[in-house]
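Changelog-adjacent note: as of this version, every example in the card shows the full chain rather than a window. The one below runs 244 residues end to end.
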Amino acid sequence: MKSWIIGIIGLAGLAAIVAGAYASPEVLLGVAVLTAAGIGIGWPHFLGVPARKTLAAVIALPGIGSAVAAAYLPAPGFLEWTPAFMALGVMAVFIVQLLRGTGQAQRLESTLGSCAGVVLSCLGAGWIAAYRFNGVREMFVVTAISAAVALLAGLIRWPDRVVAPLGIVGAGLAAPLAGLVFSNIAVLPAAIVGVVVGAVLVSFRRVAILRSARLSFPALLGAGLGPVSAVGSLAYFIDKLLLY
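Full-length structure tokens:
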């Protein structure tokens, strides 16, 4: 059941990102900021670690800063500040752990997991970069469709050995089809985007299933928005490598 709820949250977040892109750049930025905030709030709950309020701010703020920078930096350096925000977030995580003192519970899990949350939060800026890149939205749409197919496959309550290949293959097939219908993107770049996006999303589904504890709504929110945030940067960099 929890993987189903996480998938629904992911689909809702993805739909909000696409709607924001077609509304205006300001709306897309607002969606990216809310996504980073949702990951920040939810990820510590998903990890089940202490100091959740502090870690929520540490995870969310770098993602918000990265999104704002991606929205206003001149081309082509949309994500130039993203590594800096990631580094600041990681340093803040270590500072929080130092302030907690020695001998605290789940210190290693909290440090490593929160650093991963910072990365996921900051990668959401890739959706803005993909939207702004040369004014071309085709790869943005292709990525969104392939991600939606992978998330829909994850809703099927079958074993991972069936759902994982289904999600990857489905996303890999949906992407070039979307590219042919909505743009003139070549089949190979679109297929690569679809396969990579599908692999990332089904991997997160496996992580959620392995989390055996009962998850609260904030935890489900963080687990649902995290992978959706990550695939935006993947699409942007694959777009730059293969199309331009």
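Structural remarks: Residues 33 and 64 are 5 Å apart (CA to CA).
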